[in-house]
Amino acid sequence: MTRRPPRPTRVLSCALAAGTLLAGAACSDDGGADGARVPVATASQVAGERQTPSPTATLTESGARTALITEADIEDDWTQVKETEAQNWHDSLLIGRVDVSDFLTAKAQAADCQRLLDSLFDDDLLGRPSGVSALRGFTQGDSRLLYQVASYDRTDPQESLQWLAGLPQECDQFTVTDGREQRTVQVVDTSPPAVGDAREGLRVTVRGPIGGTEATLTLDVAAVRVGNDAITVTAGGLDGDEQDSVEQAARLGTQRLADVLAGRTPAASPDSG
């Protein structure tokens, strides 16, 4: 696929090192959800699509919070931050405009790539939850990890997972500009743990200048559906690879959510040292 030009991009993390964290960041409003898309479903999605989940309970606000992971659920030295801080994580590297002329089917593909960047920036990869939601953030050096639990009982998280599955093909590499500088964005698929009813994983890499210095932002993403509820994990920064932490968070977090929906108390978090 040809490259694509810059649109506003958004994401989480990294701004620590760059000193460009935006508190309420304005996002692009034109590319996202209105673009036509024909996503390609992966085998894991096809297998999980329309499965009848075993949990039947409705996720409550307290249940969503109980299903959140803790520091002990993820490896390394992640430190939990205040919820208000995590809610305001935005990275200026992700603000830009996708160049439509860079796409084979310009309008549709550019819209999907813009939606990806905007969704990363807004922390709503699976769309706005129709029910309750809860989030928790962690930091480690210049990296950040954001973990979310949400209910989509009046929408369809599977449709969003299928959209994610098509992005490595539609948005494999494109260009973004913020009006002054250009950045290169690459999107590849990853393999999250085989948990939940369906799941998808992505790695999004943004390369470009920050204050005159070249930098690379790497974000690993995993989304897992459990019935009409889902978890999403986004982690990364200028330090790079956080795939192991994302996989562990997705695996243990999915079990916590399943326990809550089944009316069980999640097991105590393992001591990951």
Question: Which labels suit this protein?
Answer:
single chain, 273 residues, alpha+beta, nine-stranded antiparallel sheet, 7 helices, disordered N terminus
Topology:
Layout: H1 15-18, H2 43-48, H3 61-66, E1 79-80, H4 83-87, E2 97-98, H5 106-122, E3 133-140, E4 143-151, H6 157-170, E5 173-177, E6 182-190, E7 198-210, E8 213-226, E9 229-237, H7 243-261
Antiparallel strand pairs: 1-3, 2-5, 3-4, 4-9, 5-6, 6-7, 7-8, 8-9
Helix pairs in contact: 5-6
Written account of the structure:
By secondary structure, the protein is of the alpha+beta class. The chain has helices spanning 15-18, 43-48, 61-66, 83-87, 106-122, 157-170, 243-261, and strands at 79-80, 97-98, 133-140, 143-151, 173-177, 182-190, 198-210, 213-226, 229-237. Strands 1-3-4-9-8-7-6-5-2 form a nine-stranded antiparallel sheet, with helices on both faces. Helix 5 packs across helix 6. The longest helix has 19 residues, at 243-261. The protein is globular and about 50 Å long. The termini are far apart. The model is unreliable at 1-55 (pLDDT under 50).
